Amino acid sequence: MNAQDPVVVIGAGPAGMSAAKLLVAAGLRPVVIDESRDAGGQIFRRPHSALSRNFKDLYGFDAGRAQRFRNDFASLLPTIDYRPETLVWNADQSALHLLSQGHSDIQRWSRLIIAPGATDRVVPTEGWTAPGVYSLGGAQIVLKAEASLIGRRIVFVGTGPLLYLIAYQYAKAGANVVAVLETGAPFAKPSLLPDLLAGGADFAKGLYYISWLRTHGVAIRASITPLAVTLDNVGNVSGFSYQFKSQTIEVSCDAVAMGYGLKAETQIADLIGLNFHFDGQQRQWLPLTDADGRSSNTNVYLAGDGLSIRGSEIAAESGKLAALALLKDAGYPCTTDGGRHRRAIHRSARFRKTLDSVFPYPSRIAAGMADETIVCRCEGLTAGVIRQAVHSSGEGEINRIKAFCRVGMGRCQGRLCGPAAAELIAASAAIDISAVGRLRAQAPIKPVSLGALAGGRQ
Ligand SMILES: Cc1cc2nc3c(=O)[nH]c(=O)nc-3n(C[C@H](O)C(O)[C@H](O)COP(=O)(O)OP(=O)(O)OC[C@H]3O[C@@H](n4cnc5c(N)ncnc54)[C@H](O)[C@@H]3O)c2cc1C
After folding, report:
1. Which residues of 379-411 are buried (b: 16+ CB within 10 A; e: fewer)?
2. Which mutation among 36, 38, 42, 83 tests ligand 1's pocket best, with the greatest number of atoms within 8 A of CB?
3. Residues of the chain whose pLDDT is less than 70?
4. Is 188 in a helix, a strand, or coil?
5. Residues lining ligand 1, judged by CB closer than 6 Å?
6. What's the CA angle centered on 429, arms 424 and 430, to 5 degrees?
7. Cβ contact 415:267 at 8 Å
8. What is the predicted pLDDT for the residue at 156?
9. Per residue in 298-307, pLDDT tens?
10. pTM for the complete prediction?
11. How far, in Å, is the centroid of ligand 1 from the Cα of 191?
């Protein structure tokens, strides 16, 4: 570490910006890097500048928080070195490799806060690579950023709170939401009610979305097994079929949004060489930190959904903790020890744990995919090819299987197919999912052009 180098924050979402605010309050001028055009992260994503939409339509119950975030950001802007539209595509123990508007650059850092958020977790279903099928988060980006809909008659399938939120946002925006199909059984366990009530306003919002959808005639079905996206004779989405209580049902639609919870964006942490642990509750590998976000590298801190999937309010609290930890470690005087933020995170833990059990990643469905289903769309690999690689090699570690069949070797580097491929490998090798390991991150963590890296424009 060179103390002359700046403190850098990756991510201008709730986690990164709440960290930056405390760093500025302590007299620092952090570099804040974000690949998006505007600050706000996923929850406060802004519409394209040519579109005018009011806050209530865009952010619903979160409109007040979105406005506060924007005001805070505007007052912070002169005091930070803000780099929008800048992708961190590689990282090591002293520098970040950046790409901004077709130009590559290197940013050295003395201390680093990593807050890159999360991405959708998908379960491949036959037909999922057809045009007209979107991830849930992708569908929301189309709506929030472009004020557009992914189709006219849309099926929402998957699990998790975002399933209902985004179906509700689409219905409110005038879309015909044909059905919301849930793989979990969230309404089947009244005994969990006290733990869910601990979620307070978040739980109330979830109930509101569900009852709004129901009272507006949207069919909501739980405990379903997705079967296939059906296509018409020119390859466009024409329906979605699923199994419900041993019945096979097909609904007609022209678009499908699917998502099964979120997956932390951990590639930067991995490239820097941080330690990870397998979180059985979230069924994913997460960077290992102490309660304040200190990682296994003494100069690197993590916060937000990129550390653990806990929602936007906890993302902001964890950003503050990471900033306080950094300031303390770097010898800056701190007026607070972070107890308030730690307690807020602790209070939410019961609710988050229950949410994870009510909306589990459907590992059984992922493991049971039909042999013909494409899993790794970058490499065009089916479930059958991955199973065959496990059986013929006798291996069960995901990087070994990658070497045998190229799963996760394509442009997305396994960000999309990794979770489902891991379930498939675990089931085929008859080992626990934690024994499958995690795909090692490789730069570039997102697709970048060789021309841009060579110094030219994209
Ligand atoms: C698509 C999507 C939509 C969501 N919508 C909602 C919603 O409407 N309501 C809700 O309550 N929760 C939503 N969530 C959950 C949500 O992510 C949060 O709980 C919250 O936004 C997390 O805050 P964060 O700061 O940790 O991450 P984020 O808000 O995701 O912010 C992370 C930031 O890091 C930037 N970034 C990531 N990788 C890089 C990189 N390599 N280089 C440079 N910049 C990078 C991103 O551009 C982003 O701005 C959504 C999640 C996803 C994935």
Report:
1. bebbbebbbebbeeeebbbbebbbeebbbbbbe
2. 42
3. 1, 50-51, 188, 455-458
4. coil
5. 10-16, 33-36, 41-43, 87-88, 115-120, 137, 140, 165, 262, 265, 304-306, 311-312, 315, 445
6. 95
7. yes
8. 98
9. 999 999 999 9
10. 0.96
11. 32
